[in-house]
Amino acid sequence: MLTIENLYFSYTGSAPWLLENVDFHLAGGEYISIVGNNGSGKSTLLKIILGFLKPVSGTVTRRARRIGYVPQRSASDASFPITVEEVIHSYGKLLHLKKIDVDQVLSVTGMEGYKKQLMGSLSGGQHQKVLIARALMGSPDLLILDEPSTGVDLTSQRDIYKELDTLHKDKGVTILAVEHNLAEAGKVSDRLYHVEHGHGHLCSVRHYIEEYIEKEGGHV
Ligand SMILES: Nc1ncnc2c1ncn2[C@@H]1O[C@H](COP(=O)(O)OP(=O)(O)OP(=O)(O)O)[C@@H](O)[C@H]1O
């Protein structure tokens, strides 16, 4: 679905590298969460994968038919006066979809009852559920999310990861997400991709937690 080979990236275009000699492979049907400290380059890697940024060197091969993207939530999202149904309609137009059934789109994450509401009036969890529903328009085979549960209460976090788990397990959607929420994402991801000091490696959730406990002297 996605292969990265020998990727180097920095915002200046030269060393020191933010991402250095990165290799990554995401197979169809997998769910991988990208984890690592603040500033380690996770969102940057996602932007390179999405084609928003160009690697300085190395290759990114995308084999997905269609990619759905849920961006990181920003404070400005709440102040823009747009309703839920307008968000769905405008995205459908962007995708050149011939028919847009707003109720059907929103029903995937149980948000059809909120279509007349302003985006800014939704709670953090409701907002993310609308963005996930939007990202699923046009039936993407790869769903990419940047910190899907930021600013979301615990109950809504569980709802969101339950939905991601269903999409992954029942509908076969391949998922790649930048994550800080290991408590929830760890339960549903197949593996983690740990970005640290410019390098990345795949590991199991268990291995990552053990490594973390060792470094932090026994505290998670
Ligand atoms: N447009 C930019 N121009 C220059 N530097 C940037 C830009 N965007 C990000 N950076 C820097 O690149 C580094 C990595 O940022 P990035 O957002 O990829 O990290 P992250 O791992 O996603 O962090 P977090 O967990 O805090 O979201 C940071 O030092 C950041 O300040």
Automatic annotation (TrEMBL):
The organism sits in which domain of life? Bacteria
| An example molecular function term from Gene Ontology annotations | ATP binding
Describe the location of the ABC transporter domain by residue ranges.
2-220
Q: Which Pfam families does the record cross-reference, listed alphabetically? A: ABC_tran (PF00005)
Keywords associated with the record: ATP-binding, Nucleotide-binding, Transport
Q: Which InterPro entries does the entry link to?
A: AAA+_ATPase, ABC_transporter-like_ATP-bd, Metal_Ion_Import_ABC, P-loop_NTPase
According to its UniProt record, which protein family does this protein belong to?
Belongs to the ABC transporter superfamily.
Task: Indicate what this protein is called per its UniProt record.
Answer: Metal ABC transporter ATP-binding protein
**Gene source species:** Dialister hominis
